[in-house]
Amino acid sequence: MPLTLLSLTRNIALAPLWIAQIGTKAKSFRDNPVLGSPLLNAWGLHVARRRLADVMSRRRRLRLAPSVTPQERTRFCELGYFLRHDAVASAQFAALCREIRESRLPAREMRQGGTVTRRIGLDAAWLAGMPATARFVKDPAVRALIHYAASCTGEPTFAVQTILADPSDGGADPQTVLHSDTFHPTAKAWLFLNDVGEEDGAFAYVPGSHRVTPQRLAWEHEQSLSAARSSDRMHGEGSFRATASDLAALGLPPPVKMAVPANTLIVADTSGFHRRSPSLRLTRRVELYATLRRSPFLPFTGGHLAAMPPSAGRFAQLEAGLQEGLERLGLAHSPWRPVGSAGAYEPAKI
Ligand SMILES: [Fe+2]
Q1: Which residues of the chain carry a pLDDT beneath 70?
Q2: How confident is the model over 114-135, as pLDDT tens digits?
Q3: Distance 332 CA to ligand 1 centre (A)
Q4: Centre of ligand 1 from the C-alpha of residue 306, in Å
Q5: CA 121–ligand 1 middle distance (angstroms)
Q6: CB 112 within 8 A of CB 179
Q7: What is the 3-state secondary structure (H, E, C) of 258-308?
Q8: What pLDDT score does 231 carry?
Q9: How far is the CA of 74 from the centre of ligand 1 (A)?
């Protein structure tokens, strides 16, 4: 079959899926010709999704508000993140650090330029032998912050994450470019096990950049017209990159670098602009990491499949199995590589 006929047949077969994805969290302008259509976006498709997601997330957050103190809500509304020093009682924090230092568990690693990220998914089976860590993972007060930032309840995915950065390796790390993860509220959280200095690739966030203002909508509209053809792959996949001049045009301040002591918890809505600051020295940072991203258009906050059997407590193993299966069938390629059992403080394996 000639190539053009083949691609036409494929496009016709996939069109219903691409259209259906308008109502989901799908965000790639490159991979979905409907979401990426310059014509549909000129007519306002992307901005309509952005607006509706904003309306729905506000409604859901109203329902979640009683679980967060008014002071923390006000700060979150202003900044786009929660920050708690001494987040865990000192005896529990010491026990949690010891458990993580002494564990060797199935890990995955991803290399981005000179930085390797290692994740050890904390399924229930591993947490059974880590009581202090399990207490943090199950802590309703921690979950309330993650839920509020994500604007949904549900089961966050927890992992022990190690960042190993070598600035002498000249490769570009896309995480050091200021970006928004997606077009709707989504939560990421870090409990830092070590002090994070200015030079240690600290998390940086543009205060207030989670808010959907008329200027932001106009900027997003502009990006949506050309994102599908962007030379920056991640911009084309819907994680819009922003420059310093974009921030100035949007009336936003520069990013704030969060050099913080150990036992600080940050929970951010990463639809706001953020990045990992470039490491200026050899860095090994260990943190408890969590993420929660759900459908942007839900009228309710609950009903999360990952929080129910058979997924509950087994997400890391299921995700790794799914990735392996899809890669074997040639249907997906993930930058994450399984590296067998590893400890959080070991050198990179990839
Ligand atoms: Fe990000």
Answers
A1: 1-3
A2: 899 999 999 999 999 999 999 9
A3: 21
A4: 22
A5: 18
A6: no
A7: CCECCCCEEEEECCCCEEECCECCCEEEEEEEEEECCCCCCCCCCCCHHHC
A8: 95
A9: 23
